[in-house]
Design a protein that fits this description.
189 residues; Glutaredoxin; five-stranded mixed beta sheet; 21% strand
Length: 189
Amino acid sequence: MTLRDLNVLPSDLPAPEDDGTARHLEGTQMPDLSLPSTTGRSVDLRGLTTVLFAYPRTGQPGKQPLVPEWDQIAGARGCTPQVCGFRDELDRIRSRGFLVHGVSTQSPSYQAEAAARLHLTFPLLSDESLMLTHALKLPVFTVADQILMKRLALVIVRGVIRKVFYPVFPPDQNASVVIEWLEANAVTA
């Protein structure tokens, strides 16, 4: 098996389908809980105004994927391009008064490596304990005995989910799609 460039999406990447597992989220109040972040501090989600995007797991250069068929699992591949898209569009999102947070079920130490390597200036949150996943009933899938979040993005205004982007495809365009929606709907914090 050859090693992959994590920043390049394959041309035959399968698109995820809307399975309905995120329909309940719009209008939901964020739960009263905190998650560890790559800043070394926990982030309280209750009253945030943020774009919170979820992803299954970032890969690491030089390492094989979780399973050989990772690229054929609809919605699995593309975490690094999604994260980098938010990094590259951060100023535009912040100009509308929003913070940006990424979240996955990966450990804080795994995410800290990705945050440093990808030069992120926003925190990645760890839901390794699945507290947020269970509290919001977020869409998940299981691979190699690991529970992973399905890719989505939430626009949260003062702790209430205002808009849900699900499924997300292609992942590298997620940030641009969120910005287009914020601008088209004149949404600011």
